[in-house]
Structure formats: structure tokens, C-alpha cells
Amino acid sequence: MNPERIGARVDSRQAKLAGRAAEQIINDVVEMGWPVGAVLGSEAELLERYGVSRAVLREAIRLVEHQRVARMRRGTGGGLVIDEPSVDAVIGPAVIHLLRAGATLDEIFDTRILLEELVAELATQRLTEEGLAIIRDAVDREAESRVSDYRHLHTQLARLSGNPVLELFVETFSRVCNFHFADPDALPADIDREVLRAHRGIAKAVLANEPGLARDRMRRHLRAEADFIRAQPDTVQRLDPDVALAGTLGDKRGEALARQIFAELLTTGATPDTFVGSEAELMQRYSASRAVVREAIRILEYHRIAITRRGPGGGLYVTEPDIAAVVDIIAIYLRRHGVQLQHIADLRFRLELAVVARAAEALRPRSRRAGRETDGEVGMLEAALRAEAEQGPAAAFDRGEDFHTMLGRLTGNRALSLVHSVVLRLGWQFFAQSAADDPRAQALSQNLPSAVLPAHQGIADALLAGDVELAVARMRSHLAETGPGSEPTGGAG
Ligand SMILES: [Zn+2]
Ligand SMILES: [Zn+2]
């Protein structure tokens, strides 16, 4: 990076105020019952309602536009119009995040198997007569080759799990897998038959009300699929940026340029704060018009890949991958789609046990003996315990420095860590809500440190001693003890 190229950073105080204003806007939209198309107010009205400066309001609007909560409409009858966050508006940023974070195909598979095992189990336990008909129909259609999407049964099962978090992530990861493996039509006929046989087996177990069997069959099926995809000569471990940014709304040429710039940044491994170019330089480098360059910049900014800094040395700069921004977008989408505490509870228990087992693997003294340095990992764990003791668990969580978030990071699985972060975030939101309404929860929230810090310490001790089984057992009882209302675990599930 050229040290002369240091444009003005976004004022952090302003960013904080804007974040708070955006949160108020979202709460107002939720409270109004999310009336899509209604006007929340003109700029003048919003300035008054939220009591912020024009610059702060505009930044807040940029945030809610990014999250597809609302968008600014110019002209008469204009104002901030309430929007509908679509599933594509959520999956796009999630995929770009995975790409920027460098998630591999193996990480995606690992996470997908974990989630779809849970789907198979829950879909079985929650099966209704209507669900039964849906599953029969899905298998019949597939047998008669009447489905174009070979993952049709998976989508239906995810819906039948009755859990919007699972539904969203199953869809996200199955799309990501398709990026690696884009042409299911090219499947040889024997593979087709094998897939159908596996799907029939899963369906049968679900319909026979055998959740354990359904889960095992799902796992075996997805493992076989993963092995098959890995064995394909065209399969790559890293995602293709071209595919990930495909369909980004915008001018075709601007979009193509955004993809090209994004791909180049990934190929060169550009780190945050790297200078990409000024508008004039980009026009020249890519022989593009000002309008095309501006559209490309708009798309890169929208996806938080790069940001424009004004002033001397200004221009386009690479930004830090921002997991908090993606987690926000997903959490807002899920709130819009009626996520409830029970849905978090479904996932939290299984996720935390998977996370602690994988984190233990990363911390194992045996891998230290094998010459792999784990000082960094040990330091991360100790820093999290310190942050919670000094700031309290809630403040540590807000900074992304709490124990559970750190364990998620330690797994080294960026896909799993994304799902985990979303579930943690929603858990804290429900917890804050109940603490605001219920004096008993309020009292518990004040005792949070004494309730959870010793448990976290105990899990950490087991991890540092290399005792995976003990760490998992301690996590299990920690989650069982801290049901809804005493730590944002969402219960033991
Ligand atoms: Zn399948
Ligand atoms: Zn905890």
C-alpha cells in the first residue's frame, strides 16, 4: 500500500450514531408490522423524528438500504419507503462474505451436513399430514424426472423443519455448492439413480417417524455427494467470484467491471486499506466511461468490498471483510420472516457442541507437539475470557470478543462461524427483548457474569488441557443450565 494514499476514513463517531439511527428505523418498521411500500417519512420528517444531523441520517439510510429494510424514493410522494428483504438480497452478501473470508468447499460441506442432519431430524419430529403429502410428491416427481432442481427434496424438508434459520442456510449452502458444481444435467445416469435411491431412503425414514434414521441417511447421502463433487475434475476448493457476483442488480457493464475488479482483488490477495484507484485511474485502466466506473464502485461499496474515501489521496480502497454487517442483514431478514426463540433453541445446542468439538481440535496439545503453533489460538481464548470478565458478557459480545464468538472463530470453519454468529446475534436480541419486558429476566441479566463466567472458564480449562470429551460435556451442561432468560443460549433445545 502506498502510504501517501490515505484518504479520510469514515468518522467513527458518525458511524456509531448512524448505526443507532438505523437500528431505530428497523425497530419502527418491525413495530409497524413491516408494511411493505409504506412511506416512513420524508428526509425532513426523519431528521426531526430521529434527532440526528443530515450526514448521520444519510449514513443510516445507506445502512437500511443495504439491509433492504427501506429505500429512499426521490420526488413528489417520495421519502423512505419500506422494502421487502428478499432471500436473494440476503444470500448474495452471505456468499460474498464466504468468498472474501476464503471459505473452502470442505468448510461448506461440513456445515451443510451439520444443518441438514438437524433438518432431517426436525422435519421427522414435526411431520404433519400436509408435510407427508409434500414429501411423497417430491419423491414421485423426482422418480418421474419432473424436477429440474435435484435438491428439491432438501428444500422441501428444510421448509418442513419449520425453522426459518435452517431454511435460509440450507438454501444458501446448496446454492454455494452449485457454484462449485454448476451442471447437474451433466450427471451420469447411474449417479441420478443413486441420488434418487438415497432420497427415497431419507423420505421413508421421515415418513416412518424415525428421526435418528432420517439423520443418519441424510448424513450418508450428503457425504457421498461431497465425495462425488470433490472427485470432479472441474471442482475447485475456492469459490469463483464471477459466479458469486452474478445477478447483482445494476448496469450490465458496471456489473461486469465490478466482477472483474473483485476477481482481481481476490487473485492478488489485496488486504484491507489497499488502494484500488481513483475514478479517473479506473476509467483509464479499464477503458470504461465515468458512468460505468461509478456503477461498478456503487456495487463494490454496496457489498462492502471497497469504499470511496474523499479528500487528497482519495479514491477506492479495499475494506475489511465485515462479518457483523452480513450477520445484521441475515438477522434482519429472519426477524422479518418471523424467527422465534424456539428456532434459536433448535439450533443453538447442536451448533455449540459442534463448535466446541472443532475448536478443541484446533487447540489440541497433540497438534502442538506435531510442530503446529497454537499460541495464537490459546491467546484468543484467554483474551475472550479476559474481555468478558472486564467488560461483562454483553459488552464483550457487542465487540465480537466474547467466549462463544471466539470459539466459533477457533473452529477455522468460516461457514460454520457465520451460522453460529447469526444464531448468537438473534439469541442476544431475544435476550435483550425479554430483559426489557420481564423484571425477572432483568435481574438475571445483571447476574450474567457470575452465572456464565465460571462455566466459560471451565470449558476453556478443558480445552487447554486437550480434553475434548470434558470440554463437550461441560458445554452441554453449561447450555442446559443457562436456559432461556439466563444467558442468550435460547435454551438447551
Ligand atoms: Zn440430495
Ligand atoms: Zn456461555
Automatic annotation (TrEMBL):
Gene3D superfamilies: GntR ligand-binding domain-like, Winged helix-like DNA-binding domain superfamily/Winged helix DNA-binding domain. The keyword DNA-binding applies. GO terms for molecular function: DNA binding; DNA-binding transcription factor activity. Keywords: DNA-binding, Transcription, Transcription regulation. Signal peptide: none annotated. It holds the Pfam family FCD. This is Bacterial regulatory s, gntR family protein. It comes from Mycolicibacterium hassiacum (strain DSM 44199 / CIP 105218 / JCM 12690 / 3849) (Mycobacterium hassiacum). The lineage of its organism: Bacteria, Bacillati, Actinomycetota, Actinomycetes, Mycobacteriales.
